[in-house]
Write a structure and sequence with these properties.
By secondary structure, this protein is α+β, with helices and mostly antiparallel strands. It has a single domain (26-159), classed as Alpha-D-Glucose-1,6-Bisphosphate, Chain A, domain 4 (2-Layer Sandwich), CATH 3.30.530. It is 36% helix and 38% strand. It has four helices and seven strands; from the N terminus they run αβααββββββα. It has helices spanning 4-23, 38-46, 48-54, 139-159; strands spanning 27-34, 61-68, 75-82, 88-99, 103-108, 113-121, 124-132. A seven-stranded antiparallel beta sheet has the order 1-7-6-5-4-3-2. Strand 6 (113-121) and strand 7 (124-132) form a beta hairpin. Helix 2 (38-46) packs across helix 3. The radius of gyration is 20 Å and the shape is globular. Mean pLDDT is 89; it is low at 1-11 and 13-22.
Length: 160
Amino acid sequence: MANLLEVCIVKYSSIKIFIMAILEKTIITVSTTVNAPVKKVWEYWTKPEHITRWNSASEDWHTPSATNDLKVGGSFSCRMEAKDGSMGFDFGGIYDAIRENEYIEYTLGDGRKVKVTFTAVENGTKLSESFDAETTNSRDMQKTGWQSILDNFKKYTESN
């Protein structure tokens, strides 16, 4: 029979591992290079009249409305809906840091963090988003969805 000290060590180790698993966050990064200058990419990323034209992961979804108060402490909100009206949700948060034409950091309504970087490269702008994964959908599903939205942004920005 194990002595009390051994039992306590095993329980402590199990609790420590459990707590560490809770504290570890999965961060997902998606990126693209847009054939446009940083100033245009920033404008199309942040202005509601543009957001409503590119912010969807597939052809059967859209963003009928968007608001954006682009300042530290300001909020943003996008209404994302299936075009057939079968479902929809609000996607929004509060800005934590902004460096114009370079960087945006915000906290989503559920507490997850997102960081967006805009980097001038030889043929345009590299746009990268890193975000805390949520626990409902798989990592791959989240990465695919966010990448699809980013691909729509690239297509819209380059064609306008």
